[in-house]
């Protein structure tokens, strides 16, 4: 009975994936994917519009022969059936890997902060994290935000928030109280604390 249930689950998942996949004009498979229900997949967002809509291209189930890696120079390596394809930074708008969306931001020659930013929450502000290695202090996780998926990404600091939300003093007071130890990125009912404040004081 357990074997039969496992087989039925596998068939159902495969049919669900096939039902959402279509052929794009780029000659790659693309899909509008329910990210929460299909966590073990990966693919790329060709454009900003694709990123906003959740439209993935070159979709595959994740395993050792089908995955995505980001190199130190932010080049993307897409592996399909063991074959590697290198994608230079700036050629696509992001990628999706096993339940997480990553947005490309920055220009390689203009800023050292170019790279792929992991989207943590889109329920109000778009909140991101990024792992950064510094020569003296080692590896750190830094947090960022943007007003939406099209807006510039900024460091998540009280100074930047005060500039962007100068007309929302109640919001600023709320985030000031949660600034210590990055409490504003803690999850509350599935949303970051800062977006709970945002919904309360900016978008009631």
Can you characterise this structure?
With 204 residues, this protein is α+β, with helices and mostly antiparallel strands. The chain folds into two domains: 20-105, no CATH class; 121-204, no CATH class. Helix content is 25%, strand content 36%. It has five helices and 15 strands. The strands form three sheets. It has a ten-stranded antiparallel beta sheet. Helix 4 (169-177) packs antiparallel against helix 5. The longest helix has 19 residues, at 2-20. The N and C termini lie far apart (50 Å).
Briefly characterize the structure.
The chain has helices spanning 2-20, 48-53, 158-164, 169-177, 193-201; strands at residues 21-23, 29-32, 41-45, 55-61, 67-70, 76-80, 83-87, 94-97, 100-105, 115-121, 126-134, 138-146, 154-155, 187-188, 191-192. The chain has 204 residues and is of the alpha+beta class.
- What strand line-up does the widest sheet have? 1-2-4-3-8-9-10-11-12-13
Number of separate domains? 2
Instruction: Estimate the global geometry from the Cα principal axes.
Output: globular
Overall helicity = 10-25%
Overall mean pLDDT: 82
Low-confidence residue ranges:
1-27
Secondary-structure-derived class = alpha+beta
Task: Please state the CA-atom Rg, rounded to the nearest Å.
Answer: 19 Å
Number of E strands: 15
Largest sheet report: 10 strands, antiparallel
Number of contiguous helices: 5
Percent range for β-strand residues = 35-45%
Q: Report, as a whole number of angstroms, the end-to-end distance.
A: 50 Å
Order of helices and strands: HEEEHEEEEEEEEEEHHEEH
């Amino acid at each position: 009975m357990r074997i039969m249930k496992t087989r039925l689950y596998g068939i159902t998942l495969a049919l669900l994936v096939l039902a959402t996949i279509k052929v794009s004009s780029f000659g790659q498979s693309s899909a509008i994917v329910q990210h929460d229900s299909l966590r073990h997949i990966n693919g790329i967002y060709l454009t900003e519009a694709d990123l906003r809509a959740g439209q993935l291209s070159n979709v595959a189930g994740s395993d050792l022969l089908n995955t995505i890696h980001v190199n130190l120079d932010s080049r993307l390596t897409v592996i399909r059936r063991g074959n590697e394809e290198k994608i230079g930074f700036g050629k696509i708008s992001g990628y999706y890997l096993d339940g997480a969306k990553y947005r490309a931001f920055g220009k390689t020659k203009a800023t050292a902060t170019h790279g792929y930013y992991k989207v943590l929450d889109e329920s109000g502000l778009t909140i991101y994290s990024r792992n950064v290695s510094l020569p003296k202090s080692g590896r750190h996780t830094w947090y960022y935000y943007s007003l939406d998926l099209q807006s510039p990404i900024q460091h998540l600091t009280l100074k930047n928030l005060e500039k962007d939300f100068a007309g929302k003093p109640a919001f600023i007071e709320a985030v000031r109280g949660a600034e210590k130890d990055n409490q504003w990125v803690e999850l509350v009912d599935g949303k970051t604390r800062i977006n709970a404040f945002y919904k309360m004081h900016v978008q009631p």
